Backbone:
């Protein structure tokens, strides 16, 4: 058995279903060995998209996504994808080929110190120096990626190690690491303290983040808030933990969130942050959330607690396990007055939004093209109940976060890193993870052009994810920033008229739909979503629209 | 505020780089760093002295603990440890200052460990403050080269039951 055979065997032991990647000489032994297994391979068109696809796959399955690329430029192209996954704590194992171990360090063709390059945004990295270490390293890598605060792990394997012979292959039962023991159970004293504070609080609120998805604790969290009637808001990464129209849900907080969600946070006397980082985009002034409030911070990563603000009650552990404990503890609570106040704020806010929307749709807003808010509402309502909505980055992302109606579906986006071009490859990964679910990628024309080569991958493997391109022919969010901060002194934001997406769909044998105004949005969206053939929907909007 | 971090790490290639990289990336200070093997060949011991706000110093400990090559982190205040630093200083001397230098060495407990007709190398092993104090006495003397280790520290011996 060769080292490459051993790698593939490790992947089988980990029940890996699919590997996203791009071969090159330094990883050919691995790609040779993988042919003898049932593991599916997907050849993307650029390595970064392999990581995004693996990320989409991981978010839907909750399992570790796997990527395999070659050395040097192949590995370097992967970097943005790894950093994106790291920022959102996505479990991933990235296998990179490396030049011959005897030549490492001598700057030979396609040599790059990838493990050094990714150090600050991987959870851990390995350079394999001996083929007999392969089983142990892979066991550890999958364990590290998927436990504690999840994240990407990189394994760099020189080509000669992949070709070396292994006398015997024994896959370890457990990863034995003296330095890695993530906390799972929350401390019971702290758990009881939180319940005690909740029983004293008059205006508590839960702010849920991406950690709830990562821990698979959605049901426990919902059960807890429903049982005790506690209002909930979320961060961008926490969208789709709660259905949009849940009576106890008051939207996303932060710069781009709902005003009534932020108001709820400001007026609360107790905030429970659940798997959220207290990051700058959701909490712009971390000091204020501890002013006249009891702050509880629940996170699996102890380093997140106290990083941006000091909570009164820190609680380290897996959210699923902690909420299971919460649900077992009974306490008396009546927050109905507080809920009534928040309901009033929400009704007012929604009425204002509806009035603005009505005005926009009836073309009283002087904007050309379709109204992006009306479009996103209509699209999300037309989508299947459990559909996956993947938002890219830019204005499209902000419109999506604020207006996408989620029922039983999932909302995904590159929240931490804000990587343009994330949506299409991530949607591919999500569709591969669960072909029975409808998956829609929504991107702008900037992000789309960063990854439009992946249409080839989608067609080749018949990955039926839907693509929406919101077209304003500019880098909308940068333009908006320049509008507000540089008094319309626009610089390098014009994308011009190309490509013609109708002709592009012809090149890929896809169907093309377009929305040019507010008249027939629902009809076009329905036809687009129902089309069994891969299709792109282009939505023309005014470049002056702001998110 | 100053803290001394006693960090036990896996004795593997690249670990120093990972720990130093962490300080660089998160804008933490390294006032001094000393690394050496322990009695267990698989474990290295780093003594890192850092200064900053209380929050930053807490984050340093948490972020160090997060590194998968870090086995154990212990954090100390300066007053709870015995600290030593070693400095070697090569100076150019002449007849007029030779006696002064030797007197300073004698007062501070430093030793002359190498000497030629016009140069001498002096070693001092003492607390970081006293090492600095000794160095200050050389202001008027022509220093050729200085080399000093980072601070080494062990917690003070306290009898526990």
Residues:
């Amino acid at each position: 058995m060769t080292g490459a055979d051993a790698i593939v065997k490790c992947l089988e032991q980990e029940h890996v279903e699919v590997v996203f990647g791009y071969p090159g000489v330094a990883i050919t032994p691995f790609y040779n060995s993988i042919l003898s297994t049932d593991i599916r391979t997907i050849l993307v068109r650029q390595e970064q998209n392999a990581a995004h696809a693996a990320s989409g796959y991981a978010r839907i399955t909750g399992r570790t996504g796997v990527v395999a690329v070659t050395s040097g430029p192949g590995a370097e192209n992967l970097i943005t994808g790894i950093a994106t996954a790291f920022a959102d704590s996505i479990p991933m194992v990235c296998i990179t080929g490396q030049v011959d171990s005897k030549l490492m360090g001598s700057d030979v063709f396609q040599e790059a110190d990838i493990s050094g390059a990714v150090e600050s945004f991987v959870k851990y990295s390995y350079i394999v120096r001996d083929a007999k270490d392969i089983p142990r390293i892979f066991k550890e890598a999958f364990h590290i990626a998927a436990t504690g605060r999840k994240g990407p792990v990189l394994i760099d394997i020189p080509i000669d190690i992949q070709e070396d012979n292994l006398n015997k292959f024994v896959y370890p039962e457990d990863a034995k690491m003296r330095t890695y023991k993530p906390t799972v159970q929350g401390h019971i004293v702290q758990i009881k303290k939180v319940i005690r504070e909740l029983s004293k609080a008059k205006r508590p609120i839960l702010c849920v983040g991406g950690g709830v998805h990562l821990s698979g604790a959605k049901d426990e969290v919902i059960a807890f808030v429903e049982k005790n009637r506690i209002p909930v808001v979320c961060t961008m990464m926490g969208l789709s933990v709660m259905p949009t129209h849940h009576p106890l849900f008051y939207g996303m907080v932060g710069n781009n969130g709902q005003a009534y969600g932020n108001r709820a946070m400001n007026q609360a006397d107790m905030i429970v942050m659940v798997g959220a980082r207290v990051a700058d985009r959701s909490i712009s002034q971390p000091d204020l959330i501890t002013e006249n409030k009891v702050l509880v911070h629940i996170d699996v990563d102890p380093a997140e607690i106290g990083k941006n603000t000091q909570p009164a009650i820190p609680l380290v552990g897996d959210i699923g396990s902690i909420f299971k404990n919460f649900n077992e503890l009974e306490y008396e609570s009546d927050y109905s007055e507080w809920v009534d106040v928040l309901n009033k704020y929400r009704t007012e806010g929604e009425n204002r939004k509806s009035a603005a929307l009505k005005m926009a749709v009836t073309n009283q807003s002087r904007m050309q093209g379709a109204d992006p808010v009306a479009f996103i509402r209509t699209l999300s309502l037309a989508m299947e109940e459990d559909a996956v909505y993947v938002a890219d980055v830019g204005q499209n992302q902000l419109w999506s976060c604020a207006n996408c109606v989620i029922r039983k579906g999932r909302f995904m986006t590159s929240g931490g890193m804000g990587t343009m071009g994330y949506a299409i490859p991530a949607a591919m990964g999500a569709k591969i993870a669960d072909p029975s679910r409808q998956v829609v990628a929504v991107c702008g024309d900037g992000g789309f052009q960063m990854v439009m080569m992946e249409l080839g991958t989608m067609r080749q493997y018949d990955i039926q994810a839907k693509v929406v391109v919101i077209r304003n022919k500019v880098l909308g969010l940068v333009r908006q920033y320049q509008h507000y901060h540089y008094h319309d002194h626009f610089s390098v934001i014009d994308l011009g008229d190309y490509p013609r997406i109708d002709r592009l769909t012809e090149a890929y044998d896809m169907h093309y739909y377009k929305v040019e105004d507010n008249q027939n949005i629902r009809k076009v969206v329905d036809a687009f979503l129902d089309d069994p053939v891969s299709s792109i929907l282009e939505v023309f909007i005014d470049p002056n629209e702001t998110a | 505020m100053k803290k001394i971090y006693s960090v036990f790490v896996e004795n593997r290639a690249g670990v120093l780089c990972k720990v130093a990289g962490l300080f660089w990336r998160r804008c933490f200070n390294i006032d001094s760093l000393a690394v050496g093997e322990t009695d267990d060949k698989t474990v290295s011991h780093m003594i890192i002295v850092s200064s900053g706000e209380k929050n930053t110093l807490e984050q340093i400990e948490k972020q160090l603990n997060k590194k998968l090559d870090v086995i154990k982190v212990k954090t100390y205040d300066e007053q709870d440890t015995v600290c030593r630093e070693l400095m070697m200083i090569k100076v150019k001397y002449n007849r007029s200052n030779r006696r002064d230098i030797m007197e300073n060495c004698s007062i501070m407990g430093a030793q002359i460990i190498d000497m030629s007709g016009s140069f001498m190398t002096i070693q001092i092993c003492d607390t970081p403050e006293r090492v600095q104090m000794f160095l200050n006495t050389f202001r008027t003397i022509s220093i050729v080269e200085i080399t000093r280790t980072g601070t080494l520290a062990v917690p003070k011996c306290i009898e526990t039951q």
